[in-house]
Every structure is written in structure tokens, then in C-alpha cells.
Amino acid sequence: MKHPIQRDETSRFQGSLRHYHRSVSQSNRTWDEWVDGKSTGRKPAVYWVKLIATIAAVLTLAAVVAGLFIELR
User: Strand locations in 1-73, DSSP E?
Assistant: First the structure.
């Protein structure tokens, strides 16, 4: 078993400055801003492309399921 490291008490920080985190910020931030940082705003084109791709994927999946249902019936 390792012995604990002997610490030199003179090398420890002995400053008098204390830093406190405030639980309430000055600006009212949303959860997304708190987690991801300041939002730069979405580009409208990217939003619409993602939305159309998602809808197309869901419709394609529904068509495959419907085709399998009809074929196996």
C-alpha cells in the first residue's frame, strides 16, 4: 500500500481572495443558452433543409411499412 504524499504546508495557497458563484445571474438565460452558450441564431435555410429531410424520412419509412403490410397480407 502506498504511503500518502507528505505535503509541505508552506507551498499551499494562502491567499485571502475568495470567489463566490452567484446562483442568480444578471441576465435571464434560457436552458439552451446555459448549456450551449449564447445562440448565434439558426440559419433559416439549414432549418428548412433539416425539416424537409426529416419529413421525407418519416414518409419513406411509412411507405416501406405500408408496402410490407400489403405484400405480406
Answer: none
Compute the C-alpha angle 41/44/47, nearest 5°. 95
Q: What pLDDT sits at residue 34?
A: 73
Q: Over the range 52-64, which residues count as b (16 or more CB within 10 Å of their CB) and which as e?
A: eeeeeeeeeeeee
CA distances from 9 to 6, 29, 62 (A): 9, 42, 69
Residues 14-65 have pLDDT tens digits of 667 666 666 665 667 777 777 777 666 667 788 899 999 999 999 999 999 9
Determine if the pTM surpasses 0.70: no
